[in-house]
Amino acid sequence: MSAIKLNWRNFFLISIFLLFFGIILLALLIPIAQNLTSSPLLVGNVAPYDIKAPYATSYQSQILTNRQHDIAASEVPLIYSPADTNIARQQLENLRNTLAYINSVRADNYSSMEQKITDLAALEHIQLSRDTIKAILSLSDARWQSISQETTSILDQLMREPIRENQLSTINEDIPTLISLSFPENQTAIITSLVQAFVVPNSLYNEQMTEAARLHARSNISPVTRSFITDESIIQAGMVITPTDYEALQQYGLAQPINRWQDLISALGLTILSVAIFIIYIRLHPDMFSGNLGMRKLALLLVLFLLFLMIARVIIPGHTVIPYVYPVMGFALTISALFSPELAIISVLPLTFLIPYGLPDAEVLTLYYLLGSLFGVFALSRAQRLTSFFWAGAAISLSGAAVAVVFRIVQPTADWIGVATLFLAAVINGIASASIALILHYYLAQFLGQTTALQLIELSRPDHPLSQLLLRNAPGTYQHSLQLANLVEQAADTIRANSMLARVGALYHDIGKIINPYFFIENQPPGNLNPHNDLDPETSAATIIRHVPDGLELARKYRLPRQLSDFIEQHHGTTITRYQYSRALELAGMDKEAVDLNKFCYPGPRPSTREIALLMLADTCEARMRAERPRDENELQELIKSVVKDKLDVGELDAAPITMQNLEQIIDSFTSTLRGVYHPRIQYPKSDGDIKTRPVFYRIPDVDTPPNQPDLDSSPTNDVSG
């Protein structure tokens, strides 16, 4: 199964890089694609310059000849067939049948008026209005007989002459003029309605004969010849290219594209080089793109690269200032913030020579983009502060302005307006790059399950709802979290970890204690009974361990980033609640077989990052220091070393990418910070009224006086850490 997954992953990677290769090659060919795939001059385009005939020639113009053919064909009249007597007879027969039916309806003495109207309205070949039907039914038999004869006579007269489709409306208008004047107006209208219903075209358009006549007319047209002499103007600059102009250009070969195979080979070579850089880096750093998010990270990297490349190759060509404004450096800042400065420099390198490829001053633009990206990445550093992006933008502006101005002022055509324009373009570039990187980092980091500096700043505010809930419900835990936040922040800076993430993670790592705050020593009011004294060891341990899943539930409810949930889930690793386990052993008569160790273990997992490992060490060191109260700095350092050694021995730090050198630095940082936090306090003399002028927080015991032993009943946490 693993082999199948591996083969599928390799196939997917090959497909991705083939697509990546194709899109890069396409981007490089965009500015010259018109020369490679189509004519530079097309019908309807404006001629960019005067085009003259390079030599004298004559040719038969197919366009002009076809135009004369069309003119001759259009002059041929439409040909119609003679009047078709069969159509005339059929229409007369239909009229007689209709009149006969009307006679039968009129003669029906058993039908009512409404029934007769309904019958006549249903006639097949004619649609009579209700008023016309009533008028017909009201006529006398003699008068109706006269109307019938007049109708038949007029239709017979009309259908004897040729009637074409386009003449039908005119003939219908002329029908009233053919009716005898002996008929009054209302009867004339009846005759007109009856005749119009049966007048149809009887002379039909003969397409075959018409087309034959047109072909004959075309054949009589001689081919049109067009001639040019040497240097005669074919088309002038600014004129729209007509079909005849384009035909002339084709005769001279001036409309054909000039294909430069050198451009294609050059673009192909740069594409191969660019893809090779990514492939080699991925092979040397497989861990960066492994795991559940590996393919997502790789896809995001390649998509961002192609997006910056394609946009640049579309909008930059043909412009002078836009290349210096285009924020290529924003890509480098985004990759540095999302992944690493090393990957940012490696991935922006091909972008710096692909974008200006084939453009004027390509060498200057390559150096401009490369130096701007390098200075921006160096200034951005680990992108842990919002101000880092502004410093990066400033570095990009200054370095870009230096490159643009230095190469500009040495040109003979240099002028101060041009220099100032490029300087301003570099400043805009720095601002745009930092802004784009900040926006992309904010949204894409969430896509990758990361936490941005803006999110951490927002979460570190004391007025955050979850922080306020912790302060109100578990004030002791809140103070404990603040102290740990300061402790891990200093240590994170020392080992160059993400100090902002470590601090915010420490602030929220114990939020699960909000649910049952009084089961934890730091939240118990002085003098109150410890609720763990009334619980059996298993229940007591389960209550303490429960603050981890409770914290995860609160993190989901308040939509904390996944990285902060990892602090909550992993800061205890798989350690044991030692006090409860010891009590269980005592109750079992020290029989380890009778005690289920799993009931006293945190579910884990172990810390997976340096920041979470820092929190685990700091949590245990701070708790043990409160319990053991070391008398001097040496004892404090030995305490911290013992904590680190214990965590190493049980393997709690195995999953974290932390080195022995980092641990030495952490020990020194913890010693320095805790020494400052828990330094000795002098005891002020009492006033005459036995009123203390200043509270005594802590006093180092005399050398001969043993330190106070911790109250085990009030320390219900694992290895005395919270």
Question: Describe it for me?
Answer:
The chain is mainly alpha-helical and 722 residues long. It folds into three domains: 12-32 and 260-450, Arp2/3 complex 21 kDa subunit ARPC3 (Orthogonal Bundle); 85-196, no CATH class; 480-720, Orthogonal Bundle (Hypothetical protein af1432). Helix content is 61%, strand content 2%. The protein has 30 helices and four strands. The chain has a two-stranded antiparallel sheet. Strands 2-3 form a two-stranded antiparallel sheet. Helix 29 packs antiparallel against helix 30 (660-677). It is elongated. The protein starts with a helix and ends in a 45-residue tail after the last helix. The model is unreliable at 1-5, 34-39 and 689-722 (pLDDT under 50).
Give the radius of gyration. 48 Å
Remind me, CATH topology of the largest domain? Hypothetical protein af1432
Biggest sheet: strands side by side, in what order? Answer: 1-4
> How many domains would you count in the coordinates?
3
Structural class: mainly alpha
Question: How many helical elements?
Answer: 30
What is the makeup of the main sheet?
2 strands, antiparallel
Beta-strand content: under 5%
Amino-to-carboxy terminus distance: 43 Å
Shape: elongated
Count of individual beta strands: 4
- Mean pLDDT across residues: 83
**What CATH architecture of the largest domain would you give?**
Orthogonal Bundle
**Fraction of residues in helix:** 55-70%
Uncertain parts: 1-5, 34-39, 689-722
What is the level 1 CATH name of the largest domain?
A: Mainly Alpha
